[in-house]
Design a protein that fits this description.
The chain has about 250 residues and is α/β, with parallel strands linked by helices. Helix content is about 40%, strand content about 25%. The protein folds into 2 domains: about 160 residues, Rossmann fold; about 70 residues, no CATH class. The protein has 10 helices and 10 strands. It has a 6-stranded mixed β-sheet, sandwiched between helices. It has a 4-stranded antiparallel β-sheet with strand order 2-1-4-5, with helices on one face. Helix 3 packs across helix 5. Bound molecules: adenosine-5'-diphosphate (ADP) and magnesium ion. The site of magnesium ion has 2 residues, from helix 1.
Length: about 250
């Protein structure tokens, strides 16, 4: 079976610094692959290369069977890449419902533009309502996006990403800035989404990582030093070394 996402020998240099040092990894169907590592390890640099925001110096990126190494961000989104940051900045003055509807419409617009008049707006609003249902944001749906909390914004960004029906998601710290209750809610949502949509998850919150990940890879100084199940990662001496002084985080 083809991997949803495959990275081969990716290299990114910033002057003399090897921010991504020959990284190879895959995202398989049905998996939540967590990428962890200390600050400055190169996680964001790697994610930016997967999205197409940053061109690698060497190596290749495949989305399904397609070589996406030189494709733009929108072209990668068309191939099924979904993500919760930067690609669709939320429209602050638009309501939550409108923000989601715009993403639904952009997906429909790709291949069904000719049907826009036929389908009309009703189907867009119906799809939007279906996404809102059970999201916890239903009663906030008609507020402008600038009126909602940071946690609700994170949920909304996730719904906007899902509105495009991605084949996989790249999540960059979905728990960042969330309180305990909000984090628990986000974990529950992500567990539900993971039933149908594989995810590559960069996350510092180890409770979330251990709750969600089917596989964990550890990035240190731009290199993947270990990859395996949660138990294998917890027991790995090189990983414990990299997190020296923070062993509790891995327990
Ligand atoms: P992480 O997300 O794991 O904290 P980053 O990918 O942000 O790590 O950074 C990896 C390394 O690359 C760091 O040493 C950082 O200072 C450096 N770096 C990141 N972006 C740039 C850039 N645009 N120019 C120069 N150095 C950068
Ligand atoms: Mg980062």
């Amino acid at each position: 079976m083809t991997d949803v996402l495959r990275v081969e020998g990716l290299v990114k240099r910033f002057g003399g610094l090897l921010a991504t040092d020959h990284v190879s990894l895959t995202l398989r169907a049905k998996e939540v692959h967590a990428l962890i590592g200390p600050n400055g390890a190169g996680k964001s640099t790697l994610i930016n290369q997967l999205c197409g925001e940053l061109a690698p110096d060497e190596g290749r990126v495949f989305i399904g069977p397609h070589d996406a190494t030189h494709l733009s961000v929108p072209a990668r989104v068309t191939l099924g890449l979904g993500r919760t940051f930067q690609v669709t900045s939320l429209l602050d003055d638009a309501t939550l419902r409108e923000n989601i509807a715009l993403a639904v419409q952009s997906r429909a617009g790709h291949s069904f533009r000719i049907w826009d008049r036929v389908l009309g707006r009703a189907s867009i609003w119906a799809d939007t309502q279906a996404l809102l249902q059970g999201s916890g944001l239903e009663d906030r749906a008609d507020l402008p996006a600038h009126d909602i909390s940071h946690g609700e914004r994170k949920q909304l960004e996730l719904l906007v990403a899902l509105a495009r029906k991605p084949k996989f998601l790249l999540l960059d710290e979905p728990m960042a800035g969330l309180g305990h209750v909000e984090s628990q809610e986000m974990i529950t949502r992500l567990q539900a989404i993971a039933q149908t949509t594989p995810m590559l998850l960069v996350e510092h919150d180890m409770d979330a990582v251990f709750a969600l990940a089917t596989r964990i890879s550890v990035l240190v100084y731009g290199q993947i030093i270990a990859s395996g199940s949660a138990d294998e990662i917890r027991a790995n001496p090189a990983v414990r070394e990299a997190y020296l002084g923070a062993e509790d985080e891995l327990c």
